[in-house]
Each structure stands twice: as structure tokens, then as C-alpha cells.
Amino acid sequence: MKILVTVKRVPDPETVIKIAPDAASIVGDNVKWVINPFDEIAIEEALRLKEKVAGSEVVLVSIGTKTAQEQLRTGLAMGADRAILVLSEQALEPLAVAHVIQKLVESEKPDLIVMGKQAIDDDSNCVGQMLAELLAWPQATFASKVELAPDQKSAKVTREVDGGLETLDVPLPAVVTADLRLNEPRYASLPGIMKARKKEMKEIPVAELGIDVAPRLKILKLEAPPKRTGGRKVGSVQELVQALHNEAKVI
User: Within the chain, which residues score under 70 in pLDDT?
Assistant: First the structure.
């Protein structure tokens, strides 16, 4: 089977983010960039499925500038077979991203698409759902467990929902988005890193796909969260209750 996995380049969660003077973007200098953690989980799940089904192929897809090659190479070093980089100088909105992947699906014809449930930079959490709608494919979001049927024609997906866990049987092809507890991603081995240099990475200018990627949303302003103030000690339970009622307004 062929599994398509999306990979987004995002700032390292440990990086200190600074807002640019235009208040609509971040300062990219001296920022460490990594694979979106949920996408890394998606890569790992695809690799595990590949190990269970002989002859399978894992194809990575990313959208961005040539700098995204680094994150794709990391995914290839983990064990993916090849990668596709759709070149775009501008950051694409979720619907445009879904349209790009839809276009690639037409040529790649994957049996399964595995994506991170969301990217940690914008937290949109909607590309997987949009893509499933555009393809008219079944979807299983927030997956914490994925099991292929013996004939590889369907999958049983356990989802994390507000009420607990939900299990879906979805026919393939389908779109699955990975949640945090789906797996623990592997580290790229030294032999894997060496092999990744020779694996195929195809570059496609976004203009060649014939997709309207014009932005429809506008960021008005980015603001850093307020600094947390220090706590204080109270002398009694009564004083605590009064503070929660009169100051915090939570009771």
C-alpha cells in the first residue's frame, strides 16, 4: 500500500518566539525549525504500517520554501521512501493546503493519508477535515490507535473524543489525523541519515498545480501572552474563598 504523510516546518516548541515589527508575523532569525510534532507522530505511524504490510511505500509531502528540505530529509532518515516539496514563497492557508494535497493525490493515488491533527504554530486543526471533504474520503481524526484489516481494504481507528474513546471502521482510501498518544516517534539512525541523502525529493512549484492560493484571511495583530504574575499565600481558607470570589471571580 502507499501511504502519504504531510510534514510541516514549524518553530521548535522550546524556541523563544519574538513578534516582528509588523505585528503580523514572527522573527525567523535564530529560530530552530523542526517537524511539527504531530506530523512526526504521523510519519512514525506510517512507518509502522509499512513494516506490517510488505511492499508498502511511505511518501512525505511538504509545502514551503527550499528550507523545508531539512525536515523532509529528517523524515526520510526515519525511514520514509521519498518526498515531495511543493515550493511556495508564501505561507498557504488551510484550504489552499488541502487543495494542494488533493492535487497530489490525483497523481500519487495513495491508499491512506496520515496527517498530524494540527500544526503547533497556528493550531488550525482543519486541513485533514477539509482534505477528506474535497476527496470525498472517509476520515478519522484525533487517532490514538490505527489497525489495518488483514485485506488492507479498511482500518479500525480509535479516536480520542470528549466522552472518552470512539472506534471507527473506515474503508480505504481514507484520511487519518494523528493525536499525541498514537505512538512515540523513533529517532533517525546514522545509517538512515546516510541513506536519506540518496532518496528522491521531488520539487514542484505551486504555480504548476493550477490552484488558487490567494489568501482569504488576514492576521490583524499578534500579541505575546501576558507574563504570569507570582502567586501569594493566604492566611486561611476563608481568605482564599474571598479572593476566589471577589478577585478571581471564579466562584
Answer: none
